[in-house]
């Protein structure tokens, strides 16, 4: 009997732990670790700051304030405090009521926007692998959860959230510092209605690391999409796009690194495809996107040899497939890779002459073409994500 009572009490306690009241600021048994806000440190020295962060980190607290600035330490493991319960807890609460959290910062920003009718901006900065991209996703996830809205708003939210896997597939890569390093700058703008519902968005990208398309350092990979396509493509796609194993392609085999721990390229590929779907890229265009990706890979396998100081395509057979995938004539491709047009003006006359390239110049031209194609493809995807957000009507365009 006594046992049963104990059991019952335990159950009740668990239930009350799950409720909002128990964990709101009235609860006084939240464990303290160091100081929540470093303006409270008795001494502001680098040692004291690092010591406080370390202490908190050891106790699994990754967030600490310095006034209104939030510091976040990468835990490299899933923390338990990113659930619905926390979303509930931080909504409408003041900063001092709960332990420091990215949700608190986001909520504060969201409320300020609604109350003051003023644009808000979060700046996330830190070294590679610090957790900026993950933090940005938590912010978007939180806003998506707390802002209401009907079907159309849900659609905008879906696009905002789905633009992440899509742009990461094409813009992120494994580096020695981060297995999912963002290799482009992103400025994401979400527009809200007066009621606080997201009704549009705009994404600008800048500085995509184009050199990665044609060359990677040791232990690094090209952009994820290449490995996703090679792992996840259907039998039919393999056939149509001439897909082989990654070590077959010059643009992938230079670093001899193909797999990333904890990444499943195959399932990420289906996520990329469904993201394209949600964003509103029609299936035939999706196919073209993949065709371009494969075309760039095949383009990279065109090599050149020396022929009397001029470059000659080593194996003409290798021209046909990339030309087909890129929708261009293979003769023209060969011509463009091994020569360039030069316009000369003499008096009122202008003359155009073909200058033949040497091997080095030809390889450089091939790589420039690959980089140009890839970066335009990336721009297209960024634009498509933005257009999806604004429902393609342009009315919700840039808020500037
Ligand atoms: N809050 C977190 N919880 C759990 N893991 C995290 C968290 N933040 C980051 N990580 C881990 O660290 C990795 C790197 O983080 P992230 O990609 O956000 O870095 P970044 O600052 O965007 O780096 P880069 O400048 O290279 O893009 C993530 O893939 C994830 O595994
Ligand atoms: Mg990043």
TrEMBL record:
Superkingdom: Eukaryota
Gene Ontology CC annotation, any one: cytoplasm
GO molecular function terms noted in the UniProt entry: actin filament binding; ATP binding; microfilament motor activity
Keyword rRNA-binding (UniProt): no
Gene3D superfamilies attached to this UniProt entry: 1.10.10.820, Kinesin motor domain, Myosin VI head, motor domain, U50 subdomain
Entry binding sites for ATP: 126-133
Assigned keywords, A-Z: Actin-binding, ATP-binding, Motor protein, Myosin, Nucleotide-binding
Presence of keyword Iron: no
InterPro entries: Kinesin_motor_dom_sf (IPR036961), Myosin_head_motor_dom-like (IPR001609), P-loop_NTPase (IPR027417)
PROSITE patterns named in the record: MYOSIN_MOTOR (PS51456)
Pfam family, one: Myosin_head
Residue intervals of the Myosin motor domain: 33-400
Family, as annotated: Belongs to the TRAFAC class myosin-kinesin ATPase superfamily. Myosin family.
Protein name per its UniProtKB record: Myosin-If
Taxonomic placement: Eukaryota, Metazoa, Chordata, Craniata, Vertebrata
